[in-house]
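pls design
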C-alpha cells in the first residue's frame, strides 16, 4: 500500500499533557515519546500523532473532526475509558451497523469508540 497522499499523522491540543498521556497509557496502553516540555508523540495506534501544549480542545460541537476507535467489546472499553479518567459525553447508542459512545480525555479532546452491531439470533 502506498503512503503517498494518505493520512499519516494527527495532532491534538492538550492543556495538561501529563494527564492526557496518563489517560491514554491507562485506557489504551499507548506509549509516548516526549519532544521537549510542550509536545509528546504516539505511534503504532493505527494513525501516528501527537499532543501539543495549548489551552484548546478538539470537540465536534466546535467543528472538529472526530477520531473513532474500534472495539471488540464496547462495554469493556467504556469501563477502561472511565477508569482511566475519561468522561463519557454521549452514552452508548445504536446506529445502522453498530453501536458507539463518545468521550473526552482529561484535556477535553473528544473521541468515540464503536463496535459492530450484535448479529447473534
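designed seq:
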Amino acid at each position: 500500500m502506498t503512503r503517498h497522499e494518505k493520512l499519516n499523522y494527527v495532532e491534538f491540543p492538550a492543556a495538561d499533557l501529563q494527564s492526557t498521556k496518563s489517560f491514554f497509557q491507562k485506557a489504551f496502553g499507548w506509549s509516548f515519546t516526549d519532544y521537549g516540555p510542550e509536545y509528546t508523540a504516539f505511534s503504532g495506534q493505527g494513525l501516528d500523532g501527537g499532543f501539543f501544549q495549548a489551552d484548546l480542545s478538539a470537540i465536534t460541537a466546535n467543528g472538529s473532526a472526530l477520531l473513532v476507535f474500534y472495539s471488540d467489546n464496547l462495554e469493556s472499553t467504556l469501563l477502561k475509558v472511565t477508569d482511566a479518567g475519561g468522561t463519557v459525553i454521549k452514552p452508548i447508542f445504536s446506529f445502522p451497523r453498530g453501536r458507539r459512545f463518545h468521550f473526552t480525555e482529561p484535556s477535553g479532546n473528544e473521541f468515540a469508540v464503536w463496535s459492530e452491531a450484535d448479529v447473534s439470533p
